[in-house]
# Entry
Amino acid sequence: MRNDYELFIKPSTGWQPINFRELWRYRDLFWFLVWRDIKLRYRQTVLGMAWAVLQPLLLMVIFTIFFHRWGKVQSGGPPYTLFAFVGLVGWTFFANAVTSSSNSLIVNQNLVSKVYFPRIFVPLGAIGALALDLLPSIVLCFLMLVYYHWMLSPFLLLLPLFVLGIFLAASGLGLILAALNVQFRDIKYVVPFLVQAGIFITPVIYPITYVPPRYQVWLGLNPMAGMTEGFRLAMLGTTASLGLIGVSFAVSVMLFVAGLFVFRRLERRFADLI
Amino acid sequence: MSGIIEIRELGKQYCIGAANGPSDSFREVLMRAVSNPLRSFARIAKRAAKADTKRSIWALRDVSFDVEEGEIVGIIGRNGAGKSTLLKVLSRITEPTVGTVRLRGRLASLLEVGTGFHPELTGRENIFLNGAILGMRRAEIISKFDEIVDFAEIATFLDTPVKRYSSGMYVRLAFAVAAFLDEEILVVDEVLAVGDQGFQKKGLRKMDEVSKSGRTVLFVSHNMAAVESLCNRVLWISGGRVKQDASPQEVIHAYLDSYGAAKNHVVDLSAIHDRSGTGDVRFTKMELLDEDGGERCAVRSGDALRVQLFYECRRDISNRHFGLRIFSDMGLLITDVHTWSTGQAVPLARKGKGNIEVKIDFLNLMPGTYYVGIWASSFHEWHDVLDNAAKLEVEPSDYYGTGRGIESRFGLMFLPFQWIVNGVAVPAMATDTTPSGV
# Structure
């Protein structure tokens, strides 16, 4: 019998650091949660994983008709269809990630109230499972590049960096919203609104040049503004402001760190409140 | 030598009501957020992290005890006494409000069978998922996979989604995964209450095996027989505190004695808090009478018994049913005699007081201690359910006129019977007391 193990349980106070050793010990559970979410997401759907591609694709069609054709929005470079789709791929991932992670604790409340494990895996697992959806969308991006005879640029190598940025921003926001959702179910109504409004304050379907130049860097405070610009830089080789991307990246990292701490702070009361 | 579990002055406070009515508090928080974003954020965090002391109860209070390695400790108590809260604190699902716990071994907890089971996943997939949730590593689950499947007896349905399982299969699988956890300390809450009799026995055997392997077990149950046979020490939790901590026999007897405690023929039911239902009908008093309406303090095997129930209705209620249940001293339901089975709904009861009587012609219980439960319902609503309204002592009688046979060692009840020896029937019952229809 191992007697070297000892655990001391006492009421905790204040901000707690992340217990990385424990996360490592439970790492198998993280992958099981990701795998479960992937397995269950498109169950009993006819089109299955095609939905991962259809979501940004249908939005692209709608925005092309309403904004480009009728609203006369111009991309300022690449074909508008391509321009919008690349932006929407990143945005769809972000929107789905924030939505599903903020609801994840509520959906899994029987787990949260009946067994102990690092709860942070629940929202992070939900986002991890969505990462898989990015692959077919990015593949379709490349097919569209071929169709429009649009040349790849060396900036493509930066793509993982911007995916990481979106992941950090979505996780940070998702962790905070998930933790607050346990006590304030209002979050459930706030999130869809946030996601719907977000697409208009992010240069997803219009180029950032539509924003007056002196406000452009401020737009970077919306982490998705810089990430969307970066996503296009990588896929389409369009020009992007380094300042904007830098600010957005810094905000993403800060949001993620804040998410970790807020989650840890509120975590101790989850089982009592859920 | 210090214990494997050391609990010191543990307390857990819950706020009631406050947590479920956050609508104005959320509005308040939002208002503040608008006027002063940074400060209010800190306050949200603070608010969520601290217990609202306005309306709160202590689910656990001043709990201190040690558990030595290898002990099998039973935890008993009424619903809401704090047993489950104690287990939740030990399993780190929730934090204590005050006090400390020191664990000198890894702890696995099983508060509900099938935690994390997903109906859409197959049996095989759920074994892995559930195992991981309970803290097993992937490699560990693989190494025990065959044993788990074997124990659960579901080999042929391994690749069927769990939603197509019978409830029996579901429970077997869920219990099987947990049964193969090998942490030093195992914390189990009432999981044996599920499943059919056969599987319950198997589960108990497995628990026995676990305990013999030198592991430490904390076991919450309402099944006194299981507690008595498995545990070597029992804690009785009442009102969030440890009321008694002693040998199983001693604690179980004291615990059961606390129920009802009918020392005379009238039982005051208005003071009993351990009841459920809408409260539209509320039992206030129970009277035990003999056949002729005389007061009766003790009942003898084979006697007739009349039970008069007094109640109050809060409103007019139509189509009511009443029932009386008899439980053994180990909590086993022996019978439930009710107006529903005889089709005698009480048509309409006016608001106010009333009474009803049930007459049992032939109480064929062996001598011993029994518990009487009563209930009132209408349509699909339970109005008042008391599982332990009173204790019923059944005294031995000389029913067969031979001075033999009516003893608790012959079981819980006796039946009308006749032995035919060499073609000659020997009546077992004295004919004058045989109730009609037997």
Notes: Confidence is low (pLDDT under 50) at residues 18-24, 430-438 of chain B. Chain B has two domains: 67-256, 266-395. Residues 266-395 of chain B form a domain with the Coagulation Factor XIII; Chain A, domain 1 fold (CATH 2.70.50.60). The first strand of chain B starts at residue 5 and ends at 15.
